[in-house]
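Support case: pyridoxal-5'-phosphate complex. Customer-provided input:
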Amino acid sequence: MSESIGTTCVQGGYRPSDGEPRQLPIYQSTTWKYDTSEHMGRLFDLEEAGYFYTRLQNPTNDAVAAKICALEGGSAAMLTSSGQAANFFALFNIMSAGDHVVASSAIYGGTFNLIKHTMGRMGIQSTFVSPHATREELDAAFQENTKCVFGETVANPALDVLDIETFAAAAHAHGVPLIVDNTFPTPVKCRPFEWGADIVTHSTTKYMDGHGAAVGGAIVDSGHFDWLAPGVAERFPGLTTPDVSYHGVVYAEKFGLGGAFITKCTAQLMRDFGSIQSPQNAFLLNMGLESLHLRMDRHCANGLEIATWLAAHPKVSWVRHPSLPGDANYQLACKYLPQGSCGVVSFGVAGGRSAAEEFMKHLRVAAIETHVADARSCILHPANATHRQMNDQELADCGITPDLVRLSCGIEDASDLIADLDQALSFV
Ligand SMILES: *Cc1c(COP(=O)(O)O)cnc(C)c1O
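Agent response - structure generated as follows:
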């Protein structure tokens, strides 16, 4: 029976049988005990599925990963300690020193640093392209050693919408997968696998948790990318040749196209880097997921209503929101995000840096935070906070104007948010 997304949000991943706890139990245990060494040996050899150590797998985490997997329509998934860990693992699972990634330039700052600088120090090269690059521009970015393409469905904080179909077609023509960070829309508003993406990542810290309670991440595999195809297999020896660090297992053969990527990522990267999500945090994440479908509708409705209201306000010089008619990303948002994009809106306060500063002082409902995608509205003036060491020219170079304010609309009543913004703008 195929299930609708709201039901999966509420019930996916954990279905108790007769006499079992209704709520997902927290397996607060590092270790599992076995009657014989032979049994444990079979688990270590990946001959049998089972738990032995929480760094590798934990039933609470697995249930929540299974829910996210079902929401995205994937074949396998895993949780990580943060969104940063999810993106690093997803990339590094199929890349090594000497390899190259084509990435959208409109991505989260932390991910840009990870790819450009930290993975750069590991000997991995990168080329950045526009999220709206044409097929020709994309083709020109590939090299002999390119191993994947990376982008964000809706970029944080630029709010650009990735042209997923064009990026997927280019990646596949060059025999590599497309990895998409789907943090902002969540699978409630966009399922990138339906547009050709092969692997999806999340910072579950944002809307999925949704209550500012637990940092976390997730990786989901579609199971669609054929690692063993002629011309492709040689490019991914980590999946298609024996793993000497794991008894010579060939992941793509032993676990099939649906299981290879996540099994390798767990057995190798989680084993060696150990960025696990704690079972307690996975439990909190699951509580957030239970209302994700309801919250996303409200976040998106509030985002659009407030963007529309701001666009008509005389003290607002410009507004960006992908679902706002006339926005530079509106056509792409209509295609990929017809039911709404996210609750984040950026806008310019007329009068520039000092006017924006004054406006921020008077807000009572939206709180000043670096966070986004929380049930509570939050707001940030980068020129006066995260980017305050920069002058106007340096700000312009990274696409941030001194008047820019980023508002993450929560799930409060839109009328209260508008009244708050209105009174604060009256001081400008
Ligand atoms: C926040 C964020 C990240 C990083 O996630 P953390 O959970 O903070 O490590 C990655 N990608 C996007 C789109 C984000 O918004």
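The mean pLDDT is 95.

Case will auto-close in a few days if no follow-up is received.
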